[in-house]
Structure prediction request, 215 residues.
Amino acid sequence: MDCESKRWARILWDYLCLHQPLEKSDVIIGLGCHDLRVAERSAALFLEGWAPWLLFTGYLGNQTAGVWTRREADVFLEVALRMGVPRGNILLETEATNTGENIRFSHRVLKESNIPTSKLILVQQPFMERRVYATFLRQWPDQVDTYAIVTSPQMDMSAYPHPTVGTASDLIGYMLGMVERIRDYPLKGFQVEQDLTPSVLSAYQWFLEAGYSPK
Prediction:
């Protein structure tokens, strides 16, 4: 990635990442995706004592359908067990195929298990933080009674590319897709509306004109 591309990509990355401070919570929810670092971050937070329960949610979604043969939640479970999380402290939701379902179906599993949900930690990829939070604010049924914090694997933009998740060019495509969803999804009722800053819109347009495609 050349210097000009990096400058515009940094604008998108900094907008999409929320960097919310952690607080002790009731449950850590790891949202399924193709990045095992999300599972590792979720398990590490449990092992550090941030919550007594860990829930993994995901069947097969946009990034894993046709690529993985096992459900996202099952793959994440295996990672957590290898890291030393007790199986009795892990819940699974294995039907969700998108972020909205991750949120709604996790709520259902936790309610059926009689686990408190006054405060949650939601874990996804860094560029997904803003979208996950906006989706939670629209689709979690008990908005008045639940407070959510969104976090992700702790890495800079330059550390994201990896053979299992994609290149720097893939990352730009993912971030462009996030911008489009933040723009379009409130009208569909999928997430709350958020401001898209002029600099973010300029970066989005620059990459489109440079030949990049949203993912």
